[in-house]
Amino acid sequence: MHKNRNARLNAHLGELNAWALAAKNLNDIQETAERIRRFARSQRYVHNNLFLWFFTVLGSIVCLLGFWPQFHVSPDTRLILKIIGGFTALGCAFGIYWRYAKVKQAGDKLYIRAVAIAAGVTRDYSYDPKALWYELKDRFHMFNDGDEGQKISTRYTGNDQGIDFELVEFRYVDVRRYTTTDGKGRTRTKTQKTTKYKYAMLVQMSEFNFLSINVPRFSQAWDSASHSFNSKFKVRCASEIKAAKFFDPKVVLAFTDQFAFIKSLDVTPMSRVCIELSHEVMPTKVSTPSLREPDTYLARLVAPSKLVLLERAKALIHFINENK
Q1: The dihedral formed by the CA atoms of 109, 110, 115 and 116, expressed in degrees to the nearest 10
Q2: Do the beta carbons of residue 247 and residue 319 sit within 8 Å?
Q3: Cα separation of 182 and 191, whole Å?
Q4: CB-hemisphere CA count at 13 Å for 1?
Q5: Is the pTM of this model over 0.85?
Q6: Angle (CA) 312 314 318, round 5°
Q7: 188: which strand partners?
Q8: Is 176 exposed, middle or buried (0-12, 13-18, 19+ CB in 10 A)?
Q9: What ranges do the domains of the chain cover?
Q10: Which residue in 23, 37, 53, 192 is deepest, having the highest Cβ count within 10 Å?
């Protein structure tokens, strides 16, 4: 019975993963939500881990016996107890964790898909992560960070009122080497690696290639009459006249009050624009509900979180087009 219960849940989770990939619109999400509701009536989204828990405890006891001084056995037997008990306990504990993660991953994948559909973006799996990074690093400054492991780890595409755009997650690794000295004067070189991420919206515009923000694209600096604006945005331009014309008082005020979320804005001579943003712009970074609580999960699935930052970034693009 327990085996059938776990097999049924695993089969259902596999179907959820397939439905998440196949969903094209919110109607598909609604249909999947109904399937989840039907399944939840007959079974919980929890594996039966009775045997795994039993052998986790048993393995732990056997392993501890190998360390217990009052347990009089030979050294070889003691070593065998440690190895068999330790591997049994760790293996079963990993099995419990893997089952928990399997439920979480299926629920997360479907919910993130719903968020993306509601936001009007589609996950792209067809690109080469390394090749796309090479292409972008030759165009924009923000992709030139990191010592190793650089790649575009996630990519979404979308269209808003006729304007195509991309959302990308840039993953890279910073490597820091430092020297330590122990009490005997011996020195050792250690390496510390830190994985970091950056996020950006990429969009093709027309005739917007003459200024950048918080990026040294151009040599000429430009300041507005607003101290608040200047403290947030370091503008560099190809022409002070063009920059001053674009940043009229209305635009300066809008950037200061509405678009302060911009981390940087870079442009190419062909008016390809890269706007660096925080992680909240990506569907993959939303807080996801737990499939183990079906009622709460379904309530959020049919009304997924909005990507507020993405909507503000879209508004920025239209604002630039209207005022450039």
Answers
A1: 70
A2: no
A3: 16
A4: 2
A5: yes
A6: 115
A7: 180
A8: exposed
A9: 2-119
A10: 23
